[in-house]
Design a protein that fits this description.
The longest helix has 21 residues. The radius of gyration is 14 Å and the shape is globular. By secondary structure, it is of the alpha/beta class. It has a single domain, classed as Rossmann fold, CATH 3.40.50. It contains five helices and four strands, in the order βαβααβαβα.
């Protein structure tokens, strides 16, 4: 069997969008019987929340969709650019930060892009729901991640 394809989901703090994207990706690869072909992780461009669990609203959103999640926030490392095949940011600022880091690594093999580029509804930017007072922003984030991850898997499996 060939080596697993590796995907890293990245947002600013690794407590909202990227954990949801990671959880969704794990969930749908399992549902489609593709878990053995894929490895997914998530990380932050900024070190604000290293070692912390995702925002309680992100965890609740995933739980409501039958997704269990227990990873802790971590920051993107230079090694990630050598390890992962795909690194997905959630917005243009994430992409700018990721490309800046990748340019410092001559061994970068990762393809860097917006997860939302795969959204069949064309919503390229997955907005940060952190400052939304209610659950709606997190539900929208989940739906965008679900659409985008599903379309990505259809193209790359």
């Amino acid at each position: 069997m060939s080596e697993k394809k590796k995907v890293l989901m990245v947002c600013l703090g690794n407590i909202c969008r990227s954990p949801i994207a990671e959880g969704v990706f794990q969930h749908i690869t399992k549902e489609k019987g593709l878990s053995s072909q894929w490895m997914v992780d998530s990380a932050a461009v900024a070190g604000y929340h290293i070692g912390k669990s995702p925002d309680h609203r992100a965890l609740l959103t995933m739980k409501n969709q039958g997704i269990s999640y227990n990873n802790k926030a971590r920051q993107v490392s230079q090694k990630d650019f050598e390890t992962f095949d795909f690194i997905f940011g959630m917005d243009e600022e994430n992409i700018s930060d990721l490309k800046g880091m990748a340019n410092q690594n001559p061994n970068c093999k990762a393809t860097i892009g917006l997860l939302g580029d795969y959204d069949p509804e064309g919503e390229r930017i997955i907005r940060d729901p952190y400052y939304d007072s209610g659950a709606e922003g997190f539900k929208k984030c989940y739906q965008q991640c679900l659409r985008s991850c599903t379309a990505f898997l259809e193209q790359h499996s």
